[in-house]
Amino acid sequence: MKITVGGEVKEYKDGLTVTELIEAEQVQEAEYVTVALNEDFVPRDEFETKQLKEGDTVEFLYFMGGGRA
Amino acid sequence: MFSNEQLERYSRHIILKEVGVKGQKKLLEGKVLIIGAGGLGAPVAMYLAAAGVGTIGIVDADEVDLSNLQRQVIHTTSDVGKAKVQSAKETMEAINPDVKVITYREFVDSTNILDLIKDYDFIIDGTDNFPTKFLINDACVMAKKPFSHAGIIRFRGQLMTYVPGQGPCYRCVFKNPPPKDAVPTCKQAGVIGAMGGVIGSLQAMEAVKYLIGKGDLLTGKLLTYDALKMEFHTVKLPQHVKDCPICGENPTITELIDYEQAECDMK
Lengths: 69, 267
Fold this sequence. Notes:
The complex is a heterodimer of chains A (69) and B (267).
Chain A: E1 2-5, E2 8-11, H1 18-24, E3 34-37, E4 40-41, E5 57-61
Chain B: H1 4-9, H2 11-14, H3 20-29, E1 31-35, H4 41-51, E2 55-59, H5 84-95, E3 100-104, H6 113-117, E4 122-125, H7 130-143, E5 147-153, E6 156-162, H8 170-174, H9 186-189, H10 193-212, E7 221-226, E8 231-236, H11 263-266
Parallel strand pairs in B: 1-2, 1-4, 2-3, 4-5
Antiparallel strand pairs in B: 5-6, 6-7, 7-8
Helix pairs in contact in B: 4-5, 4-10
């Protein structure tokens, strides 16, 4: 299936879960990443069960500090 | 109503149809509070002062350190050891004596933030740590103040704008601060100097557009920038997060919270 991850179209196996995608995409600090799926946030306790489907759009949102010190 | 000097100083604004004399007047009447006079706050403060934003408040408890100068362009080598707010004020007044700069040499916490933001039209989050970012968000939601959130680290930066009633807040997206030291700060991980310039300038742009009431703001969107790939990417956010603990339908946060700071951030 084709899904869009961070604006890029990618090919993944059918039935891929959010957790599997996080691993495949080597998401940094995965414990704290926010996942948006088709403009909705995926609750953290659904990462392991939520399966992605053809045409889905996934975004990873990261904590970013910085600025002052 | 404008002096000849003002007409000349702001001529490149006034000639823009989106700004004009009316827009410039709005800028001169505008009040923006910048929290943090560092990598992000520096370009914001300089551009807003240059733009003629009439009242600019700037909050920071720190002194200028030699290690700041690689990115905090509002401070110079001779400012090392000086209070950041004082150094910032001197630069801003040198750029534009039209601007009233109000300095607050203090840390923001739950006891002073509502008082600090109450007289301002727009707030800039130029802080470096998550406890303060969440505090600014919660205070702005409670006080119904618009603000620009931004973060920078290594070769990346991001920003979003909150306007009451027009899309999600920072907590809608990020829920709670990460545990202390779980996510590195600039001090721990480094940041490329120009990143503050890129992202801070975008924050200044949001403040200017908000004040003049033109264009689209980054409400309901998170703009991310990856300098190594040289890519900007806009992530559309859910427009309404019903269960957000601060701006949702049944808010569970009714008082401001002082989260524990990572020790290295306190210096």
